[in-house]
Q: What sequence folds into this?
């Protein structure tokens, strides 16, 4: 499984390096021909595993973040509308609370800023409704994660009994996702 995770990361990096504008630009683009084998491999991994990718240390546990990375790669490579990316998006939506909260492991009422932003960006890129993605309003959760005042004003933060482990990646993902909404990025976050 370690090889699967490594190859997934290599495939994702290859697609990002050749077609980053497919994710952040206004329209999808085709990946360079050299990235096509990586995309085909990634689609095969998703197809063979029910639309998800697993943790390298335990193949019985789904890695929702890695699954979303695969959606990003396929979207960047112009393959976001293909069955593998669509199945992965549907799987993430069906298990959204397993990724954006810690309720499954005893953290009731939690909401993790990075996974919220990452999920919202993936949903947006895939054309899903961010206000009802797996029954969750990701935009509302993202905006609620923004600290309104104090030393962390403008920071997207976790709500968790285990503390706040949000970071710059979560900041970037929330900003990228909110930039695609009619309300845009809150000025404090920018």
A:
């Amino acid at each position: 499984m370690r090889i699967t995770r490594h190859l997934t990361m290599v495939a994702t990096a290859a697609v990002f390096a050749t077609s980053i504008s497919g994710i952040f630009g206004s329209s999808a683009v085709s990946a360079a021909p050299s990235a096509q084998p990586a995309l085909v491999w990634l689609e095969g991994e998703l197809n063979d595993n029910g639309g998800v990718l697993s943790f390298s240390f335990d193949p019985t546990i789904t890695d929702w973040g890695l699954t979303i990375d695969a959606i990003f790669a396929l979207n960047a490579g112009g393959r976001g509308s293909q069955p593998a990316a669509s199945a992965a998006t549907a799987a993430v939506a069906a298990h959204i609370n397993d990724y954006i909260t810690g309720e499954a492991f005893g953290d009731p009422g939690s909401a993790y800023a990075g996974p919220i932003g990452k999920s919202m960006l993936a949903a947006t890129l895939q054309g899903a409704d961010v206000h009802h993605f797996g029954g969750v309003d990701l935009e509302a959760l993202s905006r609620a994660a923004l600290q309104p005042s104090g030393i962390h004003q403008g920071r997207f933060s976790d709500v968790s009994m285990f503390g706040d482990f949000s970071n710059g990646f979560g900041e970037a993902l929330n900003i990228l996702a909110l930039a695609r909404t009619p309300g845009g990025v809150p000025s404090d976050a920018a």
